[in-house]
Q: What sequence folds into this?
């Protein structure tokens, strides 16, 4: 069986596991103030070119979104996002559970269009009954999106500009950031740190067992973040469990001749194999992409009988029906996917 | 430096780390339905003698308390506990943050007295204005308590009886359960599973990197627990991170001639060393215990100048001032504490 | 100045004020158990043909929606509604503030289409990731809608059927119920009590100073409603303030030759005058309706210069721009609007 | 039957009802911006000597406490109060329902001792684990207290001083403020406006049908209060319902030869009759006071058989058992209590 059902069906990158061993006998402070977390913070600040960044390590993505969004918004504020956004669809209402409305705007291939945002804001702030409506406090986007697509640097800049003019925070959910950065033509960690007010660097889907790193690049997080995080049940007593992993992931390694954090290197692997998958599906097999994704999530439209046949030998996800006889299916590579697996898959598919 | 400041200043038990390696190349389901979590559930059911038990794995203690208490209580219900209870003092108000009052009763060496509970309930249910007060829905206790003390089996039975007669759930926070079970004369996992409606088996402080196992021994958890847990930000996508650890911790090992789960064996180590610490402090050095604790948390009253001297070479926690010249100090052993450390400490203290 | 800006720009119906006088010297129980509230409950049960109905009196509409929706939903459930619904647009996010997602479906002239509801439910319950999404628990509609339109009895029956088949509660917000019942061809209080699981009879906009009556026609409200209501800050100590008003509003009066509750009689007045307004705007002045409303809220498209002229002498609300030169405007009659006012308005408009 | 069971068993003061009639035909703005509310604000500002005061009108006491406390506290902050405080005992947990811990300190005849507050704060801010505990943000007291007692001006000053030094807001719940001001030797509205950061002037128990006036005497309320209030379900659409009443209550009347707001005059009536009640119980009948209250709530210890006898003819409240044969009982006068009632009571009690 070849497993392409998700990018969290795996364990942790070897370097990460190794680092647990290397550090296991040390005794440390707790609640975020351990040596490994502090060292990981320094490595992330450096990779982001953001020396003043404040960084917190949380255990998972939904937790991170709910905790951060609730912490930075005023109680009467809501969060704007494209309607396909993870917080709007697949977090069991965790953001609303903290009391904030998720205000969904139309999405375009999973992305928020700057024009839609601009128009919505214009209307809201011109409305005489605005105080009776939920005030926007933040724009939430994902990079890459839930459909694997990417914002260009220019698109991010345009969104940031609208945010600035309406005093909205720009928050980027980077659950799959490693894959987004590897695939993007022009978005880098330092650029993200410049354009976003807050973002998180996803670990769970990108080489770690668990853990996400929340970055306030300008160092302007709300006061008493430790209490706020604990109140949301998101403070790890033995915080080194995430610190050790991010220290490993952000230690530079030699990759294709240059030094870069392991995190960026393993993102590249997944994207390279995803592109090979794309060639297989589109060029060799002639399937139609459901969406044109440059990252590790690939979506193709399969005839239903072929889909059923494939399900016997490949793990993947049915995304949504396209018509009576066709279904869009999602194939996901990750840092753990091997060339061997993709080769096997090629053989398998070409032989059907 | 000898580190006795807490039981979460360490890494993970070797067997746990090893199990990460052994399982790292497997691909699994997610969100709690992975093979390792399921196997860990079976091992825990067996150790508890509770074949119908429902079990969820969460990342940390405060998260577990807030998520579970909020999930089982009705919105208008509160939780009764002794006033020293962790949820009442040291969780940044996480339970109240979910909307429920923590109703604190007097504590006796960290324990809730059955008489106090009985009287409070009697008064509440006799009060004509009861509907204007917070209705009790649950009793929360810790085993061992925040002061290291233990309830006897009879005390637990008496508490359970009062709970039954007033339709209150009995919830036992077992953040340090391994140490409590190792030290108790008569409380075992199967007994706990019989007396408590809900309890959690602490991993973070007892051999794991992170993770707690919530047990509903009778299998009567509220519906849609997965959604509830996710809504509280407590659902791990890559759930194996806790499953693998609890599989390792609940696999039986040979300890002092008999088979028992590793979890219970490593609890014993901490307690044995804690008792050796007690002999050192009380018998050899003549210090007064601040509280008489049979478990891994030990509290002694030190003269302030001696305390300051010790702080140079031993990591421990100032608990509270006793008088102008004396301070109660907490020394904590854990699964990770070694005989060597305690021996060094003996030498050190006897030489002062 | 003629005031048609809203139906809550007025005081209370004379009979209501009189009843305050008549009852002022009596001493009563409190917190909902006063003689006037109990008598009002009986009158409402009779008017609804629902002898088992449970009824609570709250102070205002947003309060009622948030309190009731939060009380009957499970924490992980959301509420479905058309996107123009009051709870989705104009309640400052009060429902989300209690932790529940408002799931907006397309609206058609302010109404929810049964087909849209059916399709959404079908998709939700077929989705394999449903547990990660917000589960629907209730359908919220308004009668009349925010645009003055009405559901027919058949439309309500069809919605109820879908609700039943997916175990959703059907909740009807009747902030302007008096006007809806007066204008409807086939929806009556007893029919509403049969089809809705919960509804509220609006007082604030229909003759009272304040107050709404929440009806659970089948008598199946959640337990401990008094505590729940108080917890939401919605329990009036001197509950007679609403009880006295609803007693007055539901005491039968002789209207057009037959006996009916005052509440229904005063709704008729507003609708009659609204229809006269319609003839004036459409037939006599040739303006286009923005929406075809049979109730007390009337919407017409006015040229902007004419709109500005009217604003000098008539109080009304700009609803939304239609094109560069035209604006949809809302004119609202109420129980307090007089024939004289409408006559003056006719003269005024015909003379322009 | 003579009714002394509470101060909300009545209707409204005649002047209040009259003012509803006088104003009934006017059309007004809504949501707090009506002419009557604005005029009432001016009258209150004048009575408080606080020209910059911001004032909001809400419907009831619990609603006011929950809305205001939640609006001014940070999410991680709690509210300190004496353990007998209304928010701690009799609001169905409404404050915790908004997410904040109520931190109860010992009470002394219903009052918070400045020493207790000082010590608690000192300990909290010296605690190294403070970030894991609920941070105090406010001190809540009632004037008069739930036991009818009063703080002296000096006591209020001392509390304010501690609040200032620890950056805590001082909030005074004035549900029965009219009676407190009438009975106090040295506390006046202007003094309260000087010492408290926030207070509310109770209407429900002091002459109105419903309604409380929240005062931020320094004009430093949080931004977007209208949205915050609406979000808590506490914004009245037809806001004049409270505005009209407070306009009536704060219009100066001639009382004992000088001009003062009706509100203060009617408080005097209740206190005068309460003192007459005290003479009856203590001097003439020889009963022991349960607490020495100078205000409209009077508490006496009655033999149980006498209590049962009285219950046939007088409405009053059993407060709590004192011993096997005696019960503390509460007798409450109000603005509505008449001399005739107290005379009848005297006859009745002296004849037993």
A:
């Amino acid at each position: 069986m070849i497993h392409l059902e998700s990018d969290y069906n795996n364990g942790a990158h070897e370097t990460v596991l190794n680092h647990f061993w290397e550090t296991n006998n040390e005794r440390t402070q707790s609640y975020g103030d351990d040596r490994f977390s502090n060292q990981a913070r320094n490595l992330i600040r450096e990779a982001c070119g953001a020396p003043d960044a404040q960084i917190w390590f949380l255990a998972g993505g939904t937790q991170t979104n709910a905790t951060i969004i609730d912490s930075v918004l005023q109680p009467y504020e809501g969060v704007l996002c494209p309607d396909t956004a993870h917080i709007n669809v697949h977090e069991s209402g965790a953001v609303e559970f903290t009391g904030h409305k998720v205000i969904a705007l139309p999405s375009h291939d999973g992305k928020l269009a700057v024009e839609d945002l601009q128009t919505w804001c214009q209307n809201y702030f011109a409305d005489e009954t605005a105080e009776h409506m939920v005030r926007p406090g933040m724009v939430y986007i994902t990079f890459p999106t839930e459909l694997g697509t990417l914002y260009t640097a220019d698109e991010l800049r345009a969104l940031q500009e609208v945010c600035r003019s309406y005093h909205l925070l720009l928050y980027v959910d980077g659950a799959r950031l490693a894959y987004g950065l590897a695939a993007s033509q022009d978005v880098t960690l330092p650029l993200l740190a410049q354009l976003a007010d807050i973002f998180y660097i996803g670990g769970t889907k990108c080489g770690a067992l668990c853990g996400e790193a929340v970055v306030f690049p300008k160092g302007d997080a709300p006061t008493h973040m430790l209490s706020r995080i604990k109140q949301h049940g998101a403070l790890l007593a033995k915080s080194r469990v995430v610190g050790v992993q991010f220290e490993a992931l952000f230690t530079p390694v030699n990759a294709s001749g240059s030094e870069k954090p392991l995190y960026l290197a393993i993102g590249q692997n997944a994207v390279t194999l995803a592109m090979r998958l794309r060639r297989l599906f589109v060029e060799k097999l002639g399937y139609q992409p459901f969406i044109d994704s440059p990252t590790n999530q690939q979506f193709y439209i399969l005839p239903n009988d072929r889909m059923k046949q494939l399900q016997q030998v490949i793990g993947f996800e049915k995304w949504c029906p396209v018509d009576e006889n066709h279904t869009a299916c999602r194939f996901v590579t990750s840092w753990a996917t091997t060339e061997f697996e993709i080769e096997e898959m090629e053989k398998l598919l070409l032989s059907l």
The first strand of chain D starts at residue 2 and ends at 3.
